[in-house]
């Protein structure tokens, strides 16, 4: 199989999985390797297998955010690897990080990197922008000291030593 064919097969595996997520599928095992791992940024955790992913990511996300629409902006593929970035448009309809439902529509920004082995996703490195979600729900975890303050001229950078 050529490198381009391998890349296209990898992309097909990932897109089929994303389509199943968007369709609220409960049978995700046909997309993931038996040794699947999901590794998220701080606040998201690490899921050691598909059951962990389902119970400790997929179901809590569904409970906190309904009417989810997946909007992937761009896919990139390289052999057995694929990546994407985008956002989920959703309604905050369940508790999220201690915040009671607000029924606000939010954007959940994400970046994913997947490794595909034997036609199934074996590893998934994920970054989900929790500070942005919390900000949309009225919580500034940076207490006004996020570096956006530099952009607005509210903070002045200190000089390097």
Describe this structure in words.
The protein is of the alpha+beta class and 161 residues long. It has one domain: Nuclear Transport Factor 2, Chain: A (Roll), CATH 3.10.450. The chain has 4 helices and 6 strands; from the N terminus they run αββαββββαα. It has helices spanning 3-22, 50-64, 130-136, 148-151; strands at residues 32-40, 46-47, 65-78, 81-92, 105-117, 120-128. The protein has a 6-stranded mixed beta sheet. The longest helix is centred in the first third of the chain and has 20 residues, at 3-22. The chain is globular, with a radius of gyration of 18 Å.
What gross morphology would you assign?
globular
What do the pLDDT scores average to?
A: 93
Major pleated sheet: 6 strands, mixed
Separation of the first and last Cα atoms: 54 Å
Q: What string gives the helices and strands in order? A: HEEHEEEEHH
Q: What is the class in the CATH system?
A: Alpha Beta
Low-confidence stretches: none
Q: Helix coverage percent of residues?
A: 25-40%
**C-alpha Rg (nearest Å):** 18 Å
Arrangement of strands in the largest sheet: 2-1-6-5-4-3
Helical stretch tally: 4
What is the count of structural domains? 1
Structural class: alpha+beta
CATH topology: Nuclear Transport Factor 2, Chain: A
The total of beta strands comes to: 6
**Percent of residues in beta strands?**
35-45%
- CATH architecture name: Roll
């Amino acid at each position: 199989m050529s490198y381009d064919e391998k890349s296209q097969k990898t992309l097909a595996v990932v897109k089929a999985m994303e389509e199943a997520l968007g369709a609220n599928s409960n049978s995700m095992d046909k997309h993931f390797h038996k040794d699947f791992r999901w590794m998220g940024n701080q606040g998201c955790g690490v899921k050691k297998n598909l059951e962990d992913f389902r119970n400790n990511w997929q179901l809590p996300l569904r409970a906190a955010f309904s009417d989810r629409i997946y909007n992937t902006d761009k896919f990139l593929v390289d052999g057995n690897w694929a990546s994407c970035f985008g956002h989920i448009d959703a309604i905050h309809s369940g508790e999220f990080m201690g915040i009671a439902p607000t029924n606000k529509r939010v954007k959940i920004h994400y970046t994913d990197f997947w490794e595909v082995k034997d036609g199934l996703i074996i590893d998934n490195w994920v970054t989900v922008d929790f500070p942005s979600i919390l900000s949309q729900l009225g919580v500034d975890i940076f207490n006004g000291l996020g570096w956006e303050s530099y952009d607005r001229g509210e903070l002045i950078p200190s000089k390097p030593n």
